[in-house]
């Protein structure tokens, strides 16, 4: 951590640009996750969560500026603010997600169409009941498996953020030791971790989520290209920010 602070003090413009980039990426990730996972959560629960997070943000800010805590206490406050920003954008995205409209009773009362259903005399209803139960059980099992995959992808994305932080700290330590090339390799590897996390985050939009071995060769190639595009885009952004920092 000390090496990271020393590097940031020597490259202040680049450090500021990276902080802004990570804050924007944090907000976008929270927005995407909220729109994907919180679309079925009641609006009252989301509003209660937003209220709690706003109160948490006010408390963290007050503790940060008034408490006489040491270095690690302030680092925990900053981590709490970062996590609160992520969760707040997720809840806001859940509130903005379109929801099914409730059934209008008055509109049904004024309708004039009458629908009459009669049982088929050729097929006994009791013979259809086991088939219907099997279909419901299969759909329920598939939904549970899809939910487990989505939770796993979210955990992989969180793991990529942890690995990115560790690789950045390691790269700064190596750079301060005078091994610039190795530091650049470790830094690019950390960007690869983040690209992998964004890759799994993007797969949350797939309905249904399929394993790679269940895809056709063309689908596997398109899916793997997402990872390489994300990694290349992150490298390009970092190089651009480095160029801007060296100029200004």
Short structural summary:
With 248 residues, this protein is an all-alpha fold. It is 79% helix and 0% strand.
Structural summary, described in words:
The chain has helices at residues 2-10, 12-37, 43-66, 71-96, 105-109, 125-176, 180-202, 217-247. By secondary structure, it is mostly helical. It folds into two domains: 11-97; 147-248, no CATH class. The radius of gyration is 25 Å and the shape is flat. The two termini are 25 Å apart.
Individual helix count: 8
| Classification by helices and strands | mainly alpha
| Strand content range | under 5%
Low-pLDDT residue intervals, each spanning 5 or more residues: 104-109
The tally of strands reads: 0
Secondary-structure element string: HHHHHHHH
Question: Major β-sheet, in short?
Answer: none
> What is the radius of gyration computed over CA atoms, rounded to a whole number of angstroms?
25 Å
User: How helix-rich are the residues, as a percent range?
Assistant: over 70%
Described by the principal axes of the CA atoms, the overall outline is flat
Measure the end-to-end span: 25 Å
């Amino acid at each position: 951590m000390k090496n990271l602070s020393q590097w940031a003090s020597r490259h202040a413009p680049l450090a500021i640009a990276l902080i802004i980039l990570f804050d924007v990426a944090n907000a976008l990730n929270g927005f995407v996750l909220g729109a994907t996972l919180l679309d079925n959560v009641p609006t009252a629960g989301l509003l209660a969560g937003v209220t709690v997070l706003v109160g948490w943000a006010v408390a963290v800010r007050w503790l940060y500026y008034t408490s006489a805590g040491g270095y690690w206490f302030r680092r925990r406050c900053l981590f709490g603010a970062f996590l609160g920003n992520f969760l707040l954008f997720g809840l806001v995205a859940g509130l903005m997600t379109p929801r099914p409209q409730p059934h209008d009773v008055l509109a049904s009362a004024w309708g004039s169409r009458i629908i009459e259903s009669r049982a088929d005399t050729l097929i006994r209803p009791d013979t259809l009941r086991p088939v219907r139960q099997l279909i419901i059980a299969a759909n329920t099992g598939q939904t549970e498996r899809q939910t487990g995959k989505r939770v796993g992808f979210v955990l992989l994305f969180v793991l990529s953020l942890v690995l990115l932080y560790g690789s950045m700290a390691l790269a700064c330590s190596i750079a301060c030791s005078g091994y610039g090339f190795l530091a650049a390799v470790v830094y690019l590897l950390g960007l690869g971790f983040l690209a992998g996390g964004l890759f799994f985050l993007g797969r949350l939009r797939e309905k249904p989520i399929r394993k790679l071995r269940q895809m056709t060769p063309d689908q596997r190639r398109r899916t793997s290209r997402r990872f390489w595009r994300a990694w290349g885009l992150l490298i390009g952004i970092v190089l651009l920010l480095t160029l801007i920092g060296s100029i200004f």
